[in-house]
Design brief:
By secondary structure, the protein is of the alpha/beta class. The protein has one domain (9-261): Alpha/Beta hydrolase fold, catalytic domain (Rossmann fold, 3-Layer(aba) Sandwich). Helix content is 36%, strand content 18%. The chain has an 8-stranded mixed beta sheet, with helices on both faces. Helix 3 (79-92) packs across helix 4 (105-116). The protein is globular, with a radius of gyration of 17 Å.
């Protein structure tokens, strides 16, 4: 796979960032913002479904600070800061309101975007999402204490090295991504309940986060809940790190998301 080599790639100056984003589809179509997972890129998370989404939407797929083509800058990574960067990108692109899909760590960015910039979000899809540390296994949290780039899924590591503006700085970028997760604090339920836009919580039945956590999440948000059978973390989106790559699962996940965005679910 050629990571972004033939993609409609753009950069925007967002605060201190030279922020990379991809743009797909008709510029006059309803905007759809795709927020990638932690340690990922726009293509590694959404490459299998992006063209399908772009058939009906103006797809905007940024890469956050210290991810993919977007270089690191001299500040800590924070989900709130990434949400503010994303809001600034939408404003730069003169997008008044967008549908938003956030995967895994990107779901936290999506939630912060909906909390901090509510007028920018029309509908919200939280894919393999979490809002509290208890939603993820203890072993995952403890694994961050000794994480190195060698512990990344090989496909994600290769993509990160291929897209990094300065590959020699990737270990530092990875360390900041790990610190972002290590310092994650539960989202405030009061803040979550301020999210009033239609929301879909979707995950696989064998996902990293538990179905019980997703069910609690959906109740807090008054959201719809979809559990994709036979799917692990990202399988239903065809993410590059999916444990069980399946075009049919990715088609199923994309169909459910499209139906929700069209108010048919």
């Amino acid at each position: 796979m050629s990571y972004g080599a033939c993609m409609p790639a753009h950069y925007a100056t967002i605060g201190p960032l030279r922020m990379y984003y991809e743009a797909h589809g008709d510029a006059g179509a309803p905007p759809l913002l795709l927020l990638h997972g932690g340690g990922s890129t726009a293509q590694t998370t959404y490459g299998q479904v992006m063209a399908r989404f772009a058939a009906r939407h103006r797809v905007i797929a940024p890469e956050q600070q210290a991810h993919g083509h977007t270089a690191d800058v001299d500040r800590a990574l924070g989900f709130d800061v990434m949400a503010d960067d994303t809001a600034a990108l939408l404003q730069h692109l003169q997008v008044i309101q967008a549908d938003v899909v956030g995967f895994s760590a990107g779901s936290v960015v999506a939630q912060q975007l909906a909390i901090r910039h509510p007028t920018l979000v029309r509908r919200l899809v939280l894919a393999s999402a979490f809002f509290a540390r208890r939603g993820l296994p203890d072993a995952l949290w403890s694994s961050f204490d000794h994480a190195t780039p060698d512990h990344m899924p090989a496909t994600l590591r290769e993509a990160a090295l291929a897209t990094a503006p300065n590959p020699e700085t990737f270990p530092h970028m990875f360390a900041k991504q790990v610190e972002l997760m290590k310092t994650f604090r539960d989202l405030d339920v009061v803040d979550l309940r301020r999210i009033t836009v239609p929301t879909l919580v979707i995950l696989g039945d064998a996902d990293i986060m538990s179905v019980e956590h997703a069910s609690e999440h959906a109740r807090i948000l008054s959201a719809k809940l979809a559990v994709v059978p036979g799917s692990g973390h990202g399988d239903y989106l065809g993410t590059l790190e999916a444990a069980k790559p399946s075009a049919r699962l990715a088609e199923l996940g994309a169909t459910m998301i499209e139906a929700f965005l069209a108010d048919e679910l």
